[in-house]
């Protein structure tokens, strides 16, 4: 019996110095952590089991320590989320679900619907609606029940939406936005709304925010932020309030209507193009970058493509076997594209083409640049690294010159080389009329390659 018991212990795993690290019968360590009882319904399991992928005890303990911190933080966030007060929109939706679950109620008896709702919601705790009104605590359930009674009676009731409720509606309407980094998309907008709520002194009912208060916030951001940043926030608030007004069917002028910070600096003065000497210096210092960064830098610089368009390329987006090699810029599961005009085919040449050939040999399937292949986050990391090289290695200090200046540079080079405007638009993904809209993977690709090669000739001699 003693031998059998020892065998069972080996099969189940042997605890070592940390109680959440086990050695399996295969000799590989695993991590085990119980989910707190109050979070099991949210997490969907009683415990977390995860292989640590190592037979080395010291390495297992190090990995387990990191996992412990991760799950402790996750549990903390989940508890904080549960502790948040329920918004009016959520209360109204729960009331709607309650009434729908009860089924249709005879219209001629609709004034008795209150007793019906209270009886179901509180499982007979109160003798009727009068008992409930006098004795029920004024908590979230009371508000949900109030909405449910009104809905069951056929009243034209609408939730008293707050600013945060309006944000929830706005985000629902834009499920297709920020798909390559949805968490950041939502977090950025939540921060903006939190700033507004702090300025207004609370999470106000959407219909009570006045034009005077909106203008007060406008004056604040006008002084604190650059025009582009301020306007993004003002446009966001207008869209959020519009979403709430539609839901509530409010006939009210949006207090953010027409509020815009005017920019006295022309767009052409905000970004500049590299000179030929500066461009060559930047290309030269890319040799000092890591392999993925060098390749991303060369391809984006010498095609004029946006950095996110290139960092998110996959091997399947690149055709190097055709008579004229090409790459396609389309949504591919790693990153989105800016707009419809940005969906295009580019014919890379020279150093950019060489970089793509190298990348495809290294990564014949999947992401071509794995280090930066996580959508907007990857592009942001690549941009930061390239800007650091541009400033410190290439010694370009002019604030108007950034990595995005390569798009302006390629545009200028094409214009100087006499490339027709429709080909320029096609290469850069700009909106334009003409034959560029009809280019495909056939012979017309050669026109794109010839145009780009001619334009880049002064830069890469």
From TrEMBL:
Keyword terms: DNA integration, DNA recombination, DNA-binding
PROSITE patterns noted in UniProt: TYR_RECOMBINASE
Listed SUPFAM superfamilies: DNA breaking-rejoining enzymes
Signal peptide: none
GO molecular function: DNA binding
Gene Ontology biological-process annotations: DNA integration; DNA recombination
Domain Tyr recombinase intervals: 269-453
InterPro entries, per database record: DNA_brk_join_enz (IPR011010), DUF6538 (IPR046668), Integrase-like_cat_sf (IPR013762), Integrase_catalytic (IPR002104), Integrase_recombinase_N (IPR010998), Phage_Integrase (IPR050808)
Pfam family, one: Phage_integrase
Family: Belongs to the 'phage' integrase family.
Protein name, entry field: Site-specific recombinase XerD
Organism, as annotated: Microvirga lotononidis
Source taxonomy: Bacteria, Pseudomonadati, Pseudomonadota, Alphaproteobacteria, Hyphomicrobiales
């Amino acid at each position: 019996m003693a031998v059998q018991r020892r065998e069972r212990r080996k099969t189940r795993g042997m605890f070592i110095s940390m109680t959440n690290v086990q050695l399996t019968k295969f000799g590989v360590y695993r991590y085990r952590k119980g989910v707190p009882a109050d979070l099991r319904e949210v997490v969907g399991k009683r415990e977390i089991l995860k292989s640590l992928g190592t037979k080395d005890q010291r390495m297992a303990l190090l990995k387990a320590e990191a996992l412990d911190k991760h799950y402790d933080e996750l549990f903390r966030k989940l508890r904080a989320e549960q502790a948040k007060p329920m918004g009016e929109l959520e209360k109204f939706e729960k009331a709607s679900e309650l009434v729908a679950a009860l089924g249709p109620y005879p219209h001629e008896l609709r004034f008795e619907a209150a007793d019906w709702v209270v009886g179901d919601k509180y499982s007979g705790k109160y003798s009727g609606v009068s008992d409930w009104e006098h004795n029920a605590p004024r908590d979230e359930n009371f508000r949900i029940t109030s909405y449910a009674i009104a809905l069951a009676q056929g009243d034209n009731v609408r939730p008293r939406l707050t600013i945060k409720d309006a944000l929830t509606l706005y985000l629902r309407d834009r499920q297709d936005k920020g798909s390559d980094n949805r968490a950041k998309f939502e977090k950025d907008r939540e921060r903006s709304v939190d700033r507004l709520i702090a300025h207004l002194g609370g999470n106000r009912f959407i219909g009570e925010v006045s034009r005077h208060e909106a203008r007060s916030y406008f004056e604040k951001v006008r002084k604190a932020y650059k025009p582009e940043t301020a306007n993004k926030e003002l446009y966001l608030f207008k869209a959020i309030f519009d979403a709430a007004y539609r839901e509530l069917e409010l006939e009210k002028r949006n207090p953010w209507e027409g509020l815009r910070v005017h920019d006295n600096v022309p767009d052409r003065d905000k970004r500049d193009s590299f000179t030929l000497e500066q461009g060559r210096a930047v290309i030269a210092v890319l040799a000092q970058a890591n392999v993925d960064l060098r390749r991303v830098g060369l391809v984006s610089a010498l095609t004029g493509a946006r950095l996110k368009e290139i960092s998110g390329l996959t091997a399947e987006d690149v055709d190097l076997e055709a008579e004229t090699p090409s790459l396609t810029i389309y949504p591919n599961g790693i990153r989105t594209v800016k707009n419809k005009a940005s969906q295009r085919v580019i014919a890379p040449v020279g150093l950019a083409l060489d970089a793509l050939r190298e990348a495809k040999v290294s990564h014949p399937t999947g992401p071509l640049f794995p280090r930066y292949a996580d959508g907007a986050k990857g592009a942001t990391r690549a941009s930061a690294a390239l800007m650091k090289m541009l400033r410190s290695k290439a010694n370009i200090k002019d604030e108007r010159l950034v990595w995005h200046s390569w798009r302006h540079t390629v545009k200028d080079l094409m214009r100087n080389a006499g490339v027709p405007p429709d080909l320029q638009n096609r290469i850069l993904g700009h909106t334009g009329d003409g034959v560029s809209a009809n280019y495909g993977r056939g012979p017309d690709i050669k026109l794109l390659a010839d145009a780009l090669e001619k334009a880049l000739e002064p830069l890469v001699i």
